[in-house]
Amino acid sequence: MWRKLVKGQALLSDFSISIALFLVIIGVSFFIQKEILKDSISLIEKSNSFRYVEDIGKRLLSYEGDPPNWDPSNFNSLGFSTEKENEINWTKISYLNIMPYETYKIYFLRDLRYNFFLNITYMNGTPIFSYGIYNENAREISKMVRIAKLNNAVVKIDIFVWR
Amino acid sequence: MRKGIVFTYDALLALSLLVSFLVLVVMYYYNTSSYENYVMIKEKKNNYLAKDMITTLNLMKYEDLPQDLQELLSSRINMTKDFLKGKSMSEILVLLWVKNQTSYVDDLISNVYYSIDGITNLNITINDDTIYSTGNTSSNIIYVAYTYITGYEENKQPLGYVGKAFATKIKKNTTLVFPISPEGAGNRGGWLTITKKFYFNSSPENITDAIFYISIHQGIDSADFEQLRINGNNIQNNVVWIWEEIVSTGKGAFGYVDLKPYIQQGWNELLMRFRNPWFNAHVHPGSRIEITYKDDTFYRSDKNNIEYVYYENVRSDEQANRNTGAWATMEYYVPLNSTLHNATLHLVINNVEDAGWWFSWDDWRWYNWDVRVYVNGILIDEIENPPTTIDKYYDLTPYTKEGTNYIVVYANTYGNVFTGVDYTEIYSDPQNDPYGSTYVFLNYTLDKSRLYYGKIDVNVNEFLGGNKENPKSYDVIFDNYPLLKTLLHVAQLFSYTITIDVDNGNTVQRVFESLFPRGIPSSVYIDPIYFDISNVNTITMTDSCSGCDYLPESSFEYTLLVPSHVGYGNVFPTREEATEDAIQRLIKVLGKYINATEIKNETVSIGNIPYLYGPVTLKVIVW
Q1: Is the pLDDT score of B380 beyond 80?
Q2: How large is the ipTM?
Q3: Which residues, listed in sequence order, are joined to residue B591 by a DSSP beta bridge?
Q4: Is B368 inside any structural domain?
């Protein structure tokens, strides 16, 4: 036998449905924020680190430094090209061997939360020089390949900025 | 219901909607921004690579290259090491291009950049001639960096004259080929009448040869070949039959007849009437009209192509057996990498019978259709209960592919079954009724790499020669002249399914394959892209039926583009010597194909600068 419906019962079920709907939408929203937008946000962040990759590329290939014939005991800013764009000065690159990364990182990066890594190889892959540190599991990594002349050969430079 | 409770769950619902809206706004913002960032980063990376490539090409000098490469380049460019010392790679690339030695560009690039294709896709062009490529620029987004190069060659006199020459009037021997597609019926003794109308836009006096090659399947009695007329003249008895083979279904025959005395300027009409009491009468692959004549026209490049490809008029008459029926094939082609705008078939068939239900022994089932249309093996229409006259347009654009396309029309016939009363006619009269005829309309735009300027087109048609055999191969060289089009006119007495392969000295590629048995076009378009114009190319045809030989009278038609001018050459002490040199160079480049009847030349005196080439644009394209 059905009992007579009273107003309070109807309201309780409506209220439960609306609470449930609200909780579902909030839950889905958090999921979307966390999972779906993760890649998009990472790409936006990447554009910041990519600017630092570009900066390092320019420093290596298009800037002689200040003064142009600097050495580790006398410089205002670091640059590694010869007077010709895209030609790297081997002497200047060699100075990095005696310039500890953590000390000189500040001359390459504006934001010290980031790190960088350079890898110079011949075009056939034979290694020539590397500098910096790299973590392939980093949350955010930007990479760029540049091509330049070093001594009498064309070389490939992989530049990584990460955090 | 109390008011407070109503307010609470309404508010919760509103809040839910608001949260959903905010989530959508945030998603939109992040997705748009992240996509823009992705594109920007990709663009910048490619821009840097294009710029790096062009800059390093300018930075790398001859003396930076490995010793053996220096030797090779010096010998290929025919210049001393002292002259080349200090020259950049970009200058050396231009020198290779000037000296027509671009086949060494790959060596140069791979010695310096190794596997650059592992880093990026790359094209290097000089004045839009591609000299190095890691692949087709299929991407819509390309990044270009360029430099201008100018220079001079060694061993040039610094003072004197240089000359160039243009052919302003010419005579050339060129060949027009009008193929006749496989088509027929005239079942079991009914007459098959085929009328081919073709347009010849020159005076008959210019004709050096005009031959009709005829390849048909007919009855074995000479009376079964009743008429062959050209512009009303009966030349039936002039046919020289070269190959004949009698089988249970009649006779396959191939022959030729001289049309030269009868060809007129403007429209011409070829009519043939024959029958086959044992089977249906029809045309076999290899039937074509070839006219070789003297011409004086230059090639005009036009990227927009509009063509009407007309059918022959095919009329099949009844032999008191209520078995007319007619069928016709037609091939048309679209060059590779073209943009097809429209392909339309206009089909007109007269006196179609609504034959009701009939049984197909080939498919082992009952049918009710009377007309079928296939394109590239795809059935695109099947007409049941047809009107007496079919007049229909078909949009072939979705079915049309690059290369050779093939249409088959069956009217009151299919396989070995024939219906139809009195006569069946696939109608075409391009002379008097161009828009009411059966034709294929084509509209396509050629890829810009197919556009040539300052050239003379020469159409050459060569017999394959050799033996009657299967498979059959043919070697062809093009003397480094660019190709506009290439067609293979296959001649066979009988055929089943064929394949055609081209070996260009580097790769072997299949360029044609029959889609179904006896689906053999008279002309197979082979895109010029498959040939290497600097190599010997071998075309091999194979029929799956071992007895289906290819006849030596099969022919290969190709259109060469011969330059109509030569640029400045060596420096000479006198104007006369520079002029003579330019004329001799022009005659050499015109080769055996063109006779220049009027040559214009220009000589200029040059000062202290031993100028030879440039400025040219060297472009690096990255994508």
Answers
A1: yes
A2: 0.77
A3: none
A4: no
